[in-house]
């Protein structure tokens, strides 16, 4: 963190140019909009139609969980009747206050952001947190709050398949920004922005998954991130930083800073002789799905108040709030652990996936990486190409179906993995995702996404044998 920088939060009016017409026309919920007044001391509220919790059958809740310091020890967390009430009752739209507070402090610790006044005490950084039913919910609502039909948005490509239908349903133009082993290609992004046609409205958003990207497994390098942020400031767009794999980073090198963190450390320029950083261009999405439980359905967005206010209004209309009970369970566990144990837990989880990744890669190398894996077999050469992921739970590999001696010959690029996976691999008893589902324009690709999160070693070996068999069969078919 650069303590010499003056932090300037973008003003509320700045977001008018980004908010969708629908978001601008949203009105606060007539009931939920008055909820904060209920908390005024001395007020007798006749406001909300809240049920009386004493009529509910649940009287207490107790669960056991792992102690991260020792994977074998279980701790018991008991929630007695009086403390269970917030979990049984309606709560605030943005989230259960205790959990919101815990998560806000987590963002401060993980990303060096100050929720209240900034480091130099010169005003607010202008961000807060809102809870969603998984980060998917927050991404979808943020897209609604920001995109008008006909808008152009920049999406890294390949992209998380779960956002393609969201953006498609918004009738916006998805401009693909290619990625490689170092994440999103900032030079391509620059080219797109520099050559943007005068007659067309400029893109207002960039969607990217910076750590252990789904599907490519790639983590964007620090240099790329800095350049992307610089371009966002120069060409005036907002970065949607979708980061559910943040805590699954397992590379030996120091983790590159998130976009949310870089906003306060990367200077924009100088004013009255002092360097300043402008903050408020990053809307960050986190998820508890990969580290606590996917079934809890808790994700959260951190970013400008002006956007999250609209997101909360969409929540108030659509589902009122995330389940209070799951928020309470998550809070009680996190509060019991504290931040040190939470970080220890996430390190344990990332070490678990690192070990899975290593086994997967070893077998991928053995069965598809070239050479004859078993005695008596012919050497068929390389059957796949990939780059080792530094986070997340995916391998993204190119199947080399053609027997060309030049693996990057244009004819290979034209190959599509869909039939190979859906027909031939499935017939051989192995499934993966054909890469085309991760391309917003649905173009062909020889790439495949394989998830290594659930398989044990024997399953990995068997899956790789079956994939090898499939590629060899298809090669033979092609040569006939
Ligand atoms: C990149 C990405 N974003 C968002 C999500 C949705 O996560 P959540 O369970 O928090 O809704 C996923 C889930 O796999 C994902 O891979």
UniProtKB/TrEMBL annotation:
Keyword Transferase: yes
Any GO molecular function: transaminase activity
Cofactor: pyridoxal 5'-phosphate
Annotated ranges, domain Aminotransferase class I/classII large: 87-467
Source taxon at top rank: Eukaryota
One GO BP annotation of this record: alpha-amino acid metabolic process
Annotated keywords: Aminotransferase, Pyridoxal phosphate, Transferase
CDD domains named in the record: AAT_like
Family: Belongs to the class-I pyridoxal-phosphate-dependent aminotransferase family.
Name of the protein in question: PLP-dependent transferase
Natural source organism: Lentinula aciculospora
Lineage: Eukaryota, Fungi, Dikarya, Basidiomycota, Agaricomycotina
């Amino acid at each position: 963190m650069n303590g010499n920088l003056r932090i300037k939060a973008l003003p509320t009016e700045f977001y008018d140019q980004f908010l969708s017409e629908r978001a601008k026309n949203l009105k606060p919920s007539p009931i939920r909009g008055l909820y904060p007044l209920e908390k005024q001391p001395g007020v007798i509220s006749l406001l909300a139609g809240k049920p009386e919790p004493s009529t509910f059958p649940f009287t207490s809740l107790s669960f056991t969980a792992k102690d991260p310091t020792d994977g074998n020890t279980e701790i018991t967390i008991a929630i007695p009747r009086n403390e269970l009430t917030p979990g049984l009752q309606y709560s605030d739209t943005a989230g259960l206050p205790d959990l919101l507070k815990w998560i806000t402090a987590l963002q401060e610790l993980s990303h060096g952001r100050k929720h209240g006044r900034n480091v130099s005490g010169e005003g607010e950084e202008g961000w807060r947190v809102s809870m969603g039913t998984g980060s998917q919910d927050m991404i979808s609502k943020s897209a609604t709050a920001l995109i008008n039909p006909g808008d152009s948005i920049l999406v890294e490509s390949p992209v998380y398949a779960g956002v393609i239908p969201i953006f498609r349903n918004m009738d916006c133009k998805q401009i693909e920004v290619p990625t490689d082993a170092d994440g999103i290609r900032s030079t391509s992004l620059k080219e797109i922005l520099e050559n943007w046609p005068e007659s067309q409205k400029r893109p207002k958003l960039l969607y990217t998954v910076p750590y252990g990207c789904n599907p490519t497994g790639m983590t964007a390098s620090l240099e790329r991130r800095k350049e992307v942020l610089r371009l966002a400031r120069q060409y005036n767009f907002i970065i949607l930083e979708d980061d559910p794999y943040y805590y699954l980073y397992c590379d030996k090198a120091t983790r590159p800073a998130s976009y949310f963190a870089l906003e306060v450390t990367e200077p924009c320029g100088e004013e009255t002789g002092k360097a300043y950083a402008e903050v408020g261009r990053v809307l960050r999405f986190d998820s508890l799905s990969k580290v606590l439980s996917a079934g809890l359905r808790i994700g959260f967005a951190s970013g400008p108040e002006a956007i999250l206010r609209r997101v909360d209004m969409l929540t108030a209309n659509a589902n009122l709030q995330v389940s209070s009970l799951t928020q309470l369970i998550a809070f009680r566990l996190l509060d019991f652990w504290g931040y040190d144990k939470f970080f220890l837990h996430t390190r344990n989880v990332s070490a678990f996936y690192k070990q899975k990744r290593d086994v997967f890669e070893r077998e991928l190398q053995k069965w598809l990486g070239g050479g004859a894996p078993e005695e008596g077999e012919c050497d068929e050469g390389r059957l796949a190409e990939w780059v080792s992921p530094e986070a997340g739970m995916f391998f993204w590999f190119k199947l080399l179906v053609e027997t060309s001696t030049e693996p990057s010959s244009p004819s290979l690029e034209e190959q599509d993995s869909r039939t190979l996976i859906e027909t031939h691999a499935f017939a051989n008893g192995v499934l993966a995702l054909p890469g085309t589902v991760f391309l917003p324009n649905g173009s062909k690709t020889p790439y495949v996404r394989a998830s290594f999160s659930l398989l044990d070693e024997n399953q990995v070996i068997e899956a790789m044998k079956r994939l090898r068999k499939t590629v060899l069969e298809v090669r033979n078919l092609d040569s006939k």
